[in-house]
Amino acid sequence: MTPNPLDTRVVLDANVLVPASLRDTLLRGAEEGLYVPFWSREVLVELHRTLVENELASIDAVTRLIDAIQRSFPDSITLSGEPLIGQLTNDPKDRHVLAAAILTGSAQIVTFNTRHFSETALGPHGVTAVTPDMFLQRLLRSHPERIIALLKSQAAELRKRPMSLDDVLQRLERHTPMFVKAARTRLSITS
Known about the structure:
Blueprint: E1 9-12, H1 14-17, H2 20-31, E2 36-38, H3 41-53, H4 59-72, H5 82-85, H6 95-104, E3 108-110, H7 119-122, E4 128-130, H8 132-142, H9 144-157, H10 165-173, H11 177-190
Parallel strand pairs: 1-2, 1-3, 3-4
Helix pairs in contact: 2-9, 3-4, 8-9, 8-11, 9-10, 10-11
């Protein structure tokens, strides 16, 4: 049985959207209805800036990427949390992320920077911060067949730079080693 997406609202921080393979896996999970993603406008600005400044893609390619994300998830951008941001106590640079979680009723923030989201700052709002590795492991435990199918589909649909499933897993392993280990175990069971 598929969980109610309203029970699985999640805010994605910009840093988990930077690595292409991880972004692809996370957004495919959302497209599959495994969770409902949210982000602040600032997250998309930060994603754009990071990809361009680190020369991970051209300005035009990044602009197309952001546009595609917004078209695919038109309801995922939160309202400005300006009044709320001043009341929050987590890292000042990431208060917009916590504000997005509060405004959307999200219980989790998926981020590499969990230290920017202390339990003391998040607890009163019923929010936790988890790494993408932890988040994807949870999705794999809850929906093993769907996640494995998603990974296979991800590999099969890469056309500009074709990759095998093993190639996709190797790229994901850099950012989500425990998830990849669990996925490989699941793949060996089903093969």
